[in-house]
Amino acid sequence: MSEVHPALAFLDITSIMSVIVPVTQLFSLSQHVKYIALEIFQRYMTSHMNSLLEYVTETTSKGRKRERLIKAVEKKVADQSPLRLITCIMIASKLFSHKKNMTPQMCQKCLKRMKVMTSAHAVIQSERNILEQIDSRLYRRSSMVVYVGMMVWLGGLGGGDLSNFRQGVVQAGAPMMEPKQLLSHALYVLDVVYMKHKEVYLDLYTILSGFTTIMNDHRAAYSHVMADRMLLGAAVVAAAGLIAGSESMCAVLVATFSHHIARISNRDILTLASCIVRATGLAVYPLDLLATP
Questions:
Q1: Residue 282 has what pLDDT?
Q2: Count of the separate structural domains present in the chain
Q3: pLDDT tens for residues 181-210?
Q4: Which of 143, 184, 230, 281 could form a disulfide with 35 if both were Cys (CB 3.0 to 4.6 A apart)?
Q5: Measured between alpha carbons, how far is residue 258 from residues 106, 125, 151, 251 in Å?
Q6: Closest C-alpha among 76, 77, 78, 108 to residue 90
Q7: Which of 133, 155, 190 is the last residue of a domain?
Q8: Closest Cα to residue 187, out of 31, 26, 12, 56?
């Protein structure tokens, strides 16, 4: 979950997803579209901004002129960001369906709602610009939806022989849950995480470090924690198991995850899951009850 370019800090993940989520819901697009669109948009914006700033620094000397040009570049890129974001959603939609994908005309209507007046031709040109900037490499990793689905499967709910999972659930005294039901809850929780991304990960950082703001000398190391999709997928499903099921259901899922994924401990999963649960506004479950040292 890389961040956008520092000059575009106002376009944080929460701000981006506050546009992506309602648009994908409006057109009934695949869950994957949200997260692929986010990745394409962040990669494009970062690459585009870096290219423009590199050109300015190579063609001007240090001084007020360069500073004015840099500010002008930043403003232009920011002004174009709504068009670029809606275009990225359209591009992502084409990857998952031939029937349910956005058209330039649909993008134009979305932008009009955002009080951005443009043409279908401008959307088409925007698509070309984005694809050229990222060398048509639309995404490099599986979407978070895949990770969440994998964790549901790994937890024993993905089909096939469910006897081990059922036995664990019965022994824990937890209610059984259908795979589709857990996946549905988990995908909702995933949306919450991205809509409240800063809140969730600042809460996690505070728990880990004791600081309420991320220290500059911690940013590089903490960025790896924020980029850990396996950990996030496990925590999202664990949180969904708690919210929709019970503490016992959550405990069974966490124990299964930490057993199969050696590098992730019970405590890691539960700590992030607790931050996610807090972000939903629901009660926080007792970590000491579920976690192991």
A1: 54
A2: 2
A3: 888 889 999 998 998 898 999 999 999 999
A4: 143
A5: 44, 47, 11, 11
A6: 108
A7: 133
A8: 31
Q: Write out the residue range of the structural domain in which residue 70 sits.
A: 6-133
101 and 159 housed in the same domain: no
The Cβ-side half-sphere exposure at 102, using a 13 Å CA radius, reads: 33
Q: d(Cα 196, Cα 203) in Å, to the nearest integer? A: 11
**What pLDDT, in 10s, does the model give residues 232-256?**
999 999 999 888 767 777 888 888 8
Amino acid 205 reads Y
Model pLDDT, residue 175: 58
Phi and psi at residue 230, to the nearest 5°: -65, -45
Within a 13 Å sphere around the CA of 6, how many CA atoms are in the beta-carbon half? 3
Interhelix angle 229-244/179-195, nearest 10 degrees: 120
Cα–Cα distance list, 132 to 129, 135, 147, 173, 207 (Å): 5, 5, 28, 55, 42
DSSP secondary structure of the chain: -----GGGTTS-HHHHHHHHHHHHHHTT--HHHHHHHHHHHHHHHHHHHHHHHHHHHHHS-TTHHHHHHHHHHHHHHHHHHHHHHHHHHHHHHHHH-SSS---HHHHHHHHHHTT----HHHHHHHHHHHHHHTTT---SS--HHHHHHHHHIIIIISSS--HHHHHHHHHHTPPP--HHHHHHHHHHHHHHHHHTHHHHHHHHHHHHHS-SS--GGGHHHHHHHHT-HHHHHHHHHHHHHHHHT-HHHHHHHHHHHHHH-TTS-HHHHHHHHHHHHHHHTPPPP-HHHH---
Cβ proximity of 236 and 186 under 8 Å: yes
127 and 150 share one domain: no
Q: Are 174 and 51 within one domain?
A: no
